[in-house]
Amino acid sequence: MSASEVPTSRSASESVQLFSSRSTDYARFRPTYPDALFTWLASHCAATDTVLDLAAGNGQASAPLTKHFHRVLACDASAEQLKAGDDWSDVQRFVADAHYLPLRGGQLDLLVVAQALHWFATPAFFTQARLALKPNGLFCAWCYSLLEVSAEVNAVIHRLYRETLAGYWPAGRSSVDAGYSDIQPPFPLIESPPFALEAHWSLAELIGYLRTWSAVKQWQQQHGRDPVALIEPQLSSAWGPADQRRLIRWPLHLLTGFPNR
Predict the structure, then answer these.
(1) pTM listed for this prediction
(2) CB within 10 Å: which end of the chain, N or C, has fewer?
């Protein structure tokens, strides 16, 4: 998919409404990114003065960046998302659209987009990113794949994801399924190590996470029922003891490069 073929700002606006509606749940049940990812990003930056976490949501990527950069900025189109989450008081937050960044030119050493590029990967956005970055500034966007638990649990979740919720995912979700391989930024990409999110969750935490899915919200609005509740018996059987904590893994896919080199 070329940059001109990805979802428009209308799709981005729809995503803002979806995620703002349950910003507290989103902050509570989303997994955290590995520390090694941020260490690797900082090591590839010529300087570590200023970084922007674009479409920051509740700060999942912003807070870890404070360990590596002197100044961390975070923006999102949703004010509700920016108010959710904890432990990111050191981050300068502001509401902004990805296509209209209120930054001076050549300000950023790093610009990251975590699990959101598919909403606005347009030529206009990449122009904004290039203008905001320093000559040797690094750009990195990433998404994570469908979670992996065990063959039995995976099978139940895959049916929910690919069958029950088919047609309810917002435009752009196909790019996540493709690991962003269909998005072609207008600059060369560099290779990155394999990263993954990992968490040890109970069944209740997994169910809470599934209910943050945008397609779950869409399906529930149309049918007046909770699609996750429909699979809870099968999920419980596949999981085992409800209080058992199991390793859950989400592979990460990165698009990284230097737009101004």
Answers:
(1) 0.85
(2) C
Give the type of residue at 83: K
Structural domain spans, the chain: 3-257
Instruction: Choose the weakest-confidence range: 86-90, 104-108, 120-124, 154-158.
Output: 86-90
What was the pLDDT predicted at 92? 95
Q: How far apart are CA 66 and CA 239, in angstroms?
A: 36
Fold held by 3-257: Rossmann fold (3.40.50)
